[in-house]
Amino acid sequence: MRRFLNWTTAVPLLALLALALTWGREPPMVVVIIVAVLLAGAVLAAVHHAEVIAHRVGEPFGSLVLAVAVTVIEVALIVSLMISGGEKTASLARDTVFAAVMITCNGIVGLSLLAATLRRRVVAFHAEGTGGALATVATLATLSLVLPTFTTSAQGPEFSPGQLAFAAVASLALYGLFVLTQTVRHRDYFLPVTHDGQPTPPDSHAPRPTTRTAFVSLALLLVALVAVVGLAKVESPIIESAVSEAGLPHAVVGVVIALLVLLPETIAAVRAAKRDQFQISLNLSLGSAMASIGLTIPAIALASIWLDGPLVLGLGGTHMVLLALTVGVSTLTVVPGRATLLQSGVHLVLFAAFLFLAVSP
After folding, report:
1. pLDDT digits (tens, 9 = 90+) for 304-319
2. How far apart are CA 292 and CA 254, in angstroms?
3. 88 secondary structure, DSSP code
4. Omega within 30 of 0 (cis) for the link into 202
5. What is the torsion angle, in degrees rounded to the nearest 10, for the CA atoms of residue 192, residue 196, residue 198 and residue 201?
6. pLDDT above 60 (res 205)
7. Is residue 1 predicted with pLDDT exceeding 50?
8. Which of 140, 237, 279, 299 sits at 20 to 30 Å (Cα–Cα) from 26?
9. Is 203 exposed, middle or buried (0-12, 13-18, 19+ CB in 10 A)?
10. What is the pTM of this model?
11. Residue 309 host element (H or E)
């Protein structure tokens, strides 16, 4: 009984109940406010349970669990919206994946660097592992979001069925190879290091959770993430109305929803940076970007069997410039294996530019 009185257990269950009661309906403003509070609580609960799992299984498995779990649920939401939304959702996958890449590679990395460098002048991490992760993200993003703009087999910024199948297989293969590298062959490249580059000793301040506790946290993590993504969708009509009344582009809605969905990773990454574990922040941010592309493209390739209408994947010129600049800046941040407050500022300015251009294209 005491476990169920704990807020980290009660809030995800209440959020899931709220999702069941409000899904497919237009709730009144009072209910919308309650849903927003439960959404925020579910985000915090998800971070707590992710950290319990990470403490039990160790890094980099803990970061991988959170990144993959939230991405799988996010992909399920994207596919369901595309199947039910018709032609107006033709660019939904592209917009969501690009927003996820910019949020993770600039927003989360920038905030984590800020938290870490305010504590220490210089933060250290493994350039080998982080560089490999960045190379994988850049390759996946280019294959899936840039090439469709220039291919000629299909009209517009789209892939032909054969090209989409190749992109899906390549995405899954690269993501699977990275997970193998991260968790088996070169796991040490993704473990936290101290500010002078030495391996961080295991956390001795708290005992490792039991296996039973870890499984309970895993179940509650999934419940919390389902609630986060679902309640973000419930809130989307209110967000759409606010965006429309403000005279902003409709693409802003996707950015806001992506920000809500990626809140668990953001909070977990910043908290890790404050604990002098910046490598975990990088594992979370780049891992989420990679999972977002590597799982979304195969999912929509499969769903395209049932989808009617075009599937727009290619980015426009402005977004391609932002993506190229992000890859270039991230490379310069990663190569030395050490970063300062300056790199934090550069990434945050890039993130601000993405948000500004979403509002004022």
Report:
1. 777 676 788 889 899 9
2. 14
3. G
4. no
5. -60
6. no
7. no
8. 299
9. middle
10. 0.82
11. none
β-strand partners of 351:
none
Residue type, 193: V
Instruction: Provide long-range contacts, Cβ within 8 A and 24+ apart, for 15-19.
Output: 15/39, 15/41, 15/42, 15/223, 15/224, 15/227, 15/228, 15/231, 16/223, 16/226, 16/227, 16/230, 18/227, 18/231, 19/226, 19/227, 19/230, 19/231, 19/234
* Domain at 2-359: CATH code: 1.20.1420.30
Using the Cα atoms of residue 209, residue 211, residue 217 and residue 218 in order, give the sign of their dihedral.
Answer: positive
Distance CA 3, CA 5 (A): 5
Q: Say yes or no to pLDDT of 204 above 50.
A: no
- Rounded to 5°, the CA angle 270-273-275 comes to 115
Cβ contacts of residue 353 below 8 Å, gap of 6+?
322
Structure tokens at 207: 């005992």
Quote the Cα angle for 296-302-306, to 5°: 120
Tens of pLDDT, residue by residue over 114-126, are 999 998 889 989 8
Highest mean pLDDT among 207-221, 246-260, 286-300: 286-300
Q: Can you give the pLDDT at residue 173?
A: 92
Report the chain's mean pLDDT, rounded to a whole number: 83
Query: Could you state, in order of their start, the residue ranges of all structural domains in the chain?
Result: 2-359
Tokens 């707590």, located at residue: 48
* Mean pLDDT, residues 99-108 taken together: 93
| Higher local confidence (pLDDT), 327 or 299 | 327
